[in-house]
Amino acid sequence: MPLIPVAGSEHFAQGAEPLQGSAFGDLVLHDVTDAQIDGVDALTYEVVRHRLVAITEEMGDAIKRMSGSVVVTDCNDFGAAIMDERGETVQLGLYNTQLGASLDMAARWTLANRADNPGIRPGDQFLSNDPWVGGGLHQNDVTVLAPVFHDGELFCWTGAVAHQVDLGGVSPGSWSVDGLDVFWESLPTPPVKIVEDGRMRTDVEEMYLRRSRVPKLVGLDLRAKIGANNVARDRIGALIDKYGPDTVKAVMKRMMLDSETRLRNKLRALPDGEWTSIAHQDGGRGGDREIHKIVLTMKKIDDHLVFDFTGTDSQVEGIINCTLAGLRGGILPIVLTMLCPDIPWAPGGIYRCLEIVSEPGTLNNCTFPAGIGKASVSSAWATQNAASETVAAMLHTDPVLSQSAMSVCCGTWDLALLAGVDQRGGGFVTMICDSMAGGFGAKVDGDGVDTGGQNCIPMGRVADVEINEFSFPMLYLWRREEVDSGGPGEFRGGVGASSCFVPHDSPIGGVHLVVSATGKALPQAQGLSGGYPAGTQWDVLMRGTSVQEAFTRGIIPQAFDAIGGEQELMPNHHETNMGPVDVYFTHWQGGGGLGDPLRREPRRVSVDVSAGAVSVSAAESVYGVVLDAGGAVDELATEKARARLRSERAGV
Known about the structure:
Blueprint: H1 34-38, H2 42-66, H3 70-73, E1 78-84, E2 89-92, H4 97-100, H5 103-119, E3 125-128, E4 141-150, E5 153-163, E6 192-196, E7 199-200, H6 202-209, H7 215-243, H8 245-268, E8 273-282, E9 291-301, E10 304-308, H9 324-339, H10 347-350, E11 354-357, H11 379-395, E12 415-421, E13 427-432, H12 465-471, E14 474-481, E15 497-503, E16 511-516, E17 538-543, H13 547-552, H14 560-563, E18 566-569, E19 573-578, E20 583-587, H15 602-611, H16 616-621, H17 635-650
Parallel strand pairs: 10-11
Antiparallel strand pairs: 1-2, 1-5, 3-4, 3-6, 4-5, 6-7, 8-9, 9-10, 12-13, 12-16, 14-15, 15-20, 16-19, 17-18, 17-20
Helix pairs in contact: 2-7, 2-8, 7-8, 9-11
C-alpha cells in the first residue's frame, strides 16, 4: 500500500536552518554586538566557557538522579544542551550526541511557531517527540525545551532529551516491527507547553502519559528532564549575576565562533577531495528481505564539507526511515569525535562548516507519514556509518590528523525488547541495552577497543547484569565478548559481544519479545584501507530448552549444546512470546579493521588467539598466521601461508 501524502505536513519541517528576522510575537531577544564578543578577555572567556560545559554535565547528572529508567540511569541514553536565544547550540553534553544533534531544530521551530500562540514566557517549558520538528530521532526520543529569560528578554534555551521505553503504538516499546507507516507507531507530538509559569500542566501531562504502557516510569522521566532544565536555568542565572548578561552571551557567541574558526582551519590543512561510502540496511519491516542503501559522497572544499546523499534509496514502507533530524544525527557525532576532539563542542558553530545535500522523500530524509519507529538505530545509524567511513578516509590523508580517525564502530544496534509482568507483579517494558558494548573501529596506530561502546554516545554505558536481573524478570546465562567478531586488519577492530538469557520469576511465566536488528545479511561495520568489516549480527531463540533442569543440578549452561531445545534463527524484525524455558541469544557487532590483515604482526595474532579475540582457524585463514600446539607462531609455516594467500588473491 503506498504512503498517502498528508496535506500541511511540511509545516513541521522548518527548523533545520538558522532563523532570520527578529520579530517573534512580543518576545524581546537578548543579543550582543560583535564588539562585545571580541571584547571578552581570554581569562573570563575560559572561566565562563568551562562553567557552561559544567552546566550541561549537571543537567545530565540531574536526569540520571531523577529518572527511574535503566535506559537512562545505567546506559546514559539521553542528551542535554544549551542554546542561544535563537536556538543555535552553544554546548552539547557528552551523552547521546545523536539526540543532541537536533535540539537546535526543535528550539528554532518552537520560537518560530509558538511565540504568538500560546506564547513563550518565563517559567514555560515545551514537550515534543516529533522527529520532523527535531529534538529526537524517533518518537521515543522525547525532548523538553525551556526558554531562559533575564530582565524580560529571552536569553537562551536549554534542552533535555531521553529515550522513553514505551510511548504507545502497536507493539510494546513502540517498535512496531510489522508497521507500514507512522500511524502504526507512537504519536509524534510537536512542541506543546507542558510547564506554564513554573507549574506542570496536568491536562497536557495526562494526555502525554495516556499513550504509554508504563505511564509512571515515563512520567518520572518527564520530571527528570524538567528538573534538568530547572537546574540549568538556576546555574545560568547565577552565572549572569556574577559576570553580567552581556558577558555570558558574548562567551556563548564566541564559543560557536571559536568552534567554527578552528574547524575551518583544520579543514584548510587537509587536501580537497571527494570520498564515497554506501551503507546498507537489510529489511525495512517484518517480512522485507530487500537491501536498502544510503549513498554518501563527501566533498572537502577549502574550509567546509559537503555531505551529498544523492543516490540514496527512496523511503520505504516499514520502520527504518529517518527524518532530516536523523540525518543530522548521523553526521554530527562523527564530526565531533573525529574532527573536533580538541575543539569545543558547540554545534552552532560547527554546523556552519557543513553543507547537507539530500532529497526529501529518501531513506534518511523521509517525509510524513513514513514509518520512523526505528529511525535512531536504522537510517540515522547507517548515515553515521557512511559519514564515519568518509571522514576517516579524508583524515587518513594527513599523518597527524589521521590519529583521530577510526574504522566504523559497531555497525548497528541489536535490539531486544522485553515486555510483560515483572517479578513484583507490575507491568514492564524495557530495551535491553547490552549492545551499548559494541566494538570500536581500528585506528591507524592500534586496535579498536574491545566492547568499547558506541562512538555517538561518549559516556554510554552497559547496565550491569545484576541491575537488569533486579529490574526485570530475566536471568543471564552469560554476557561475554565473542571470538572473531572484530574486523580483521593490520590493526584489528574491537570485538563485539553476546548475551544469553531466560525469562525468570515472572508471575505469568514468560515475557513478550520484540526483535529488530539488521546487519544479518551483510556486515555494516566496514573496514578501512584494506581492513575487513566486522562480523555480521545474529540472534537465536531456543524453544523448549533443558535450562531449568540444568539449574536444578547447579549448572549454568555456557554453550548452545548444553542449552538444548529447538533453535530458531531470528529474522531482522520479529515479535513473539518467550516461555519460561525459552532462551534468547543476541550477538552484536564489533568494529571494522584497518589495513591488510596479512600485514598484522604474527605475534599480535598469537596474543589475540590466547585472549579469545581471534580463533585458531581465522588466524590461519584470514591472517595467514600458523600457530604450533603451544600457541606460539610457526614463522616458516606463517611465511608460506601468507605467500599462498597472496597468490590466491592475485588469482595465481
